[in-house]
Amino acid sequence: MADNETARGALEDLYLEITTGKIRGQCEEREDKFFWDASAHEHIGRSWLDVPWYWAESFFFRRVLEATRYFENGIDPYRLRKRGELEPNAAPRAVATLLPNLPRDSRARLVALMYAALWGNRYDLSMDVAALTAQARPDERAN
After folding, report:
1. Is the Cβ–Cβ distance between 124 and 57 less than 8 Å?
2. In 3-state terms, what secondary structure has residue 1?
3. Which residue among 77, 92, 120 closes a domain?
4. 66-72 contacts: CB < 8 A, separation 24 or more?
5. Can you tell me whether residue 45 is helix, strand or coil?
6. Which of 9, 81, 94, 104 has the smallest CB count inside 10 Å?
7. Do 106 and 59 sit in the same domain of this protein?
8. pLDDT digits 0-9 by tens, 76-123
């Protein structure tokens, strides 16, 4: 229970840092610290909104691992979210749902397949709107 409270506090601190503070470096001494220190050097002290999106996203997920002490306890904070996507038939079921519903028009079909490919390439699980609706629908606002 103490580990949960420690993780909760660290995640709340990360939330405050992202919403009101400045980026700080990684604190825990792990094998990847040198890499993250080098890549974060020019971003330390800046707002999370003022750094390249991909870097901020990657660093955020690394900081979540730090906050939850993943490398100490081995408990993956994303395991429940990933479980469904790692089921043996998850990908075939998604394809079986997509293919019969493709548009007949070749351009519309290409767009639908491209969106499906991008949706299926969700490394970080941050784009879960499709999971809420159980469909991969293009969101033109994101373009």
Report:
1. yes
2. coil
3. 77
4. 66/10, 66/26, 66/27, 66/28, 67/7, 67/10, 67/11, 67/13, 67/14, 68/7, 68/10, 68/11, 69/3, 69/6, 69/7, 69/10, 71/28, 71/30
5. coil
6. 104
7. no
8. 888 877 777 677 777 777 778 888 888 999 899 888 888 777 765 554
Structural domain span for residue 126: 82-142
Residue 110: HSE in the Cβ half-sphere, 13 Å Cα cutoff: 2
- Which amino acid, one-letter code, is at 52? P
Amino acid at 24: R
Retrieve residue 96's tokens. 């079986």
List CB contacts of 7: < 8 A, sequence separation 6 or more.
67, 68, 69, 77
Q: How many CB atoms lie within 10 A of CB 35?
A: 12
Q: Is 29 helix (H, G, I), strand (E, B) or coil?
A: coil
